[in-house]
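[step 3/7] inverse_fold.run input=structure_tokens len=547
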């Protein structure tokens, strides 16, 4: 470990980047004591010597802080720099010598009207990845946006985030906070979901020390979003923002919400009187005072609300309190938001119409329309969770999202089968248990590689007479097929693996078959999946043989 930069006049550094030669770039505050009158990007050699200083916005240093945020160095040596929202433009592009280049205007490119803050930027594969709190995050602002250097928006993630880093295949955002429904701000959505509270204001857990969902073993497949899941058991003992459940699990689940303190004022006696989940009243309340007098700095009110089987619904969890001032007979009522539960909806299973068995590798996607008979199109990412436009099924064939209100269709595709589109349905109410039965496509079935032992209609061990189908070479002994060698890229597995597929795709399709030791070998790598052998050379599948 070593440090460098002493004497370079660095001040309030906000961003860092490293180029392919090992040079380091930092965004630094103006420092008049060393003659630096502008907020600058400072370029260091790998040894720590100052090579250059570039001022993205000369003559406009930040009034009290560094106006420059993240920086990134492109493959061509040019430099991208983010500035705060009071400095225009928000994104500056400099060549390797510091001259200004054309850069997209984020206030035009991003659907946020240029509001909010940008913090981090990264470049990879000819794309820019910008992170921050862009737009009104209460109304599904952007945590990350992906765009081309020319300013075309490629993708985005709703919510808020801090810094971003990108590898060959993945983007990482620190401090990621995902947004809720794009149709309503969280406080509006929660208020509307309470039902019989008639629009009462729902408050954050003001006096609470923690909000905890204690998840029983019955809640298989629960996903807890927030801080502090106890990996040693089914209980979560720190602040939790959201619990995501499959609808099957919700039917048999028990959830317990824990709370210390109350939202009542210090001179009031607070008593929990009701609880709600997804607008439905319910839940068994256990209330306990630890001492006779309330100490604001050490809350002595403990409350647990247990929602039993059949009481778990999608929506916010709210605890109603009666707050009574001493000497008064008229309590005031406060409603405290304690987190939320989401159910996977719509959800279901993809199966083969003939076999009735689940299909792995089916691509399931969603289509959204504002009306039942309107035009259905791919939804924006901030309308679905998880934010995948296409969800690939595993061996169980299951799929599922949590979606915004609207009219939806589900589309399922699998190689070897005909595409299936469901009829339009509205969410809410919940749409679960969909069973998408795909019919065979004979033309694609003839080109389907099944690692279990056949390619199209040609099976290992079967009698063979006549010529082999084009694109296949057969090894025949004593009249039976002993091996099948795939010679054409027209053939592929149900998971999309064919001649020329990348090693990364093979790993994603058949992770259990990939041994770490095999990846360290030099030369050809052979991966065995049931009766199929995939040979990889120079990172791509060069041969497929079934024996």
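[step 3/7] decode complete -> sequence:
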């Amino acid at each position: 470990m070593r440090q460098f930069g002493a004497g370079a006049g660095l001040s309030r550094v906000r961003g860092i980047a490293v180029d392919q030669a090992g040079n380091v770039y930092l965004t630094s505050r103006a420092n008049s004591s060393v003659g630096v009158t502008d907020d600058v990007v400072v370029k260091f050699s790998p040894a720590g010597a100052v090579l250059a200083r570039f001022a993205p916005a000369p003559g406009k240093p930040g009034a009290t802080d560094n106006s420059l945020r993240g920086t990134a160095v492109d493959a061509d040596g040019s430099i991208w720099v983010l500035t705060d929202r009071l400095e225009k433009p928000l994104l500056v592009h400099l060549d390797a010598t510091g001259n200004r280049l054309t850069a997209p205007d984020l206030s035009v490119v991003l659907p946020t009207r240029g509001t909010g803050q940008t913090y981090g930027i990264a470049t990879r594969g000819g794309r820019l990845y910008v992170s921050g709190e862009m737009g009104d995050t209460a109304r599904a602002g952007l945590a990350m946006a992906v765009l081309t250097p020319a300013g075309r928006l490629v993708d985005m993630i709703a919510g808020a985030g801090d810094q971003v880093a990108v590898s060959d295949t993945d983007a990482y955002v620190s401090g990621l906070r995902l947004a809720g429904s794009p149709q309503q701000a969280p406080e509006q959505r929660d208020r509307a979901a309470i039902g019989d509270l008639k629009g009462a204001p729902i408050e954050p857990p003001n006096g609470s020390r923690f909000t905890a969902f204690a998840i029983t073993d019955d809640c298989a497949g629960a996903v807890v979003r927030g801080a502090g899941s106890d990996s040693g058991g089914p209980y979560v003992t720190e602040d939790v923002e959201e619990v995501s459940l499959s609808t099957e699990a919700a039917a048999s689940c028990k959830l317990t919400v824990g709370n210390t303190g109350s939202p009542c004022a210090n001179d009031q006696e607070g008593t929990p009187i009701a609880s709600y989940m997804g607008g439905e009243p319910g839940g068994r309340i256990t209330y306990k005072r630890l001492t006779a007098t309330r100490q604001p700095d050490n809350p002595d009110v403990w409350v647990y609300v247990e929602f039993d089987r059949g009481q778990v619904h999608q929506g916010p969890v709210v605890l109603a309190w009666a707050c009574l001032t001493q000497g008064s007979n008229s309590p005031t009522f406060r409603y405290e938001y304690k987190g939320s539960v989401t159910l996977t909806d719509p959800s279901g299973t993809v199966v083969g119409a003939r076999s009735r068995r689940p299909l792995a590798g089916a691509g399931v996607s969603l289509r959204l329309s504002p009306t039942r008979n309107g035009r259905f199109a791919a939804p924006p990412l901030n309308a679905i969770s998880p934010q995948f436009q296409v969800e690939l099924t595993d061996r169980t064939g299951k799929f599922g999202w949590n979606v915004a209100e609207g009219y939806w269709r589900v589309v399922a595709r699998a190689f070897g089968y005909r595409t299936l589109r469901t009829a339009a349905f509205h969410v809410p109410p919940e749409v679960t248990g969909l069973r998408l039965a795909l019919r065979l496509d004979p033309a694609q079935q003839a080109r389907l590689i099944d690692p279990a032992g056949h390619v199209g209609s040609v099976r290992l061990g079967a009698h063979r007479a006549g010529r082999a189908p084009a694109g296949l070479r057969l090894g025949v002994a004593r009249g039976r097929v002993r091996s099948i060698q795939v010679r054409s890229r027209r053939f592929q597995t149900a998971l999309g693996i064919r001649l020329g597929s990348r090693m990364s795709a093979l790993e994603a399709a058949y992770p259990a078959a990939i041994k770490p030791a095999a990846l360290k070998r030099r030369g050809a790598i052979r991966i065995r999946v049931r009766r199929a052998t995939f040979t990889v050379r120079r990172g791509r599948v060069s041969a497929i043989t079934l024996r």
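[step 4/7] annotate
Residues 156 and 375 are 23 Å apart (CA to CA).
The chain is about 5% helix and 40% strand.
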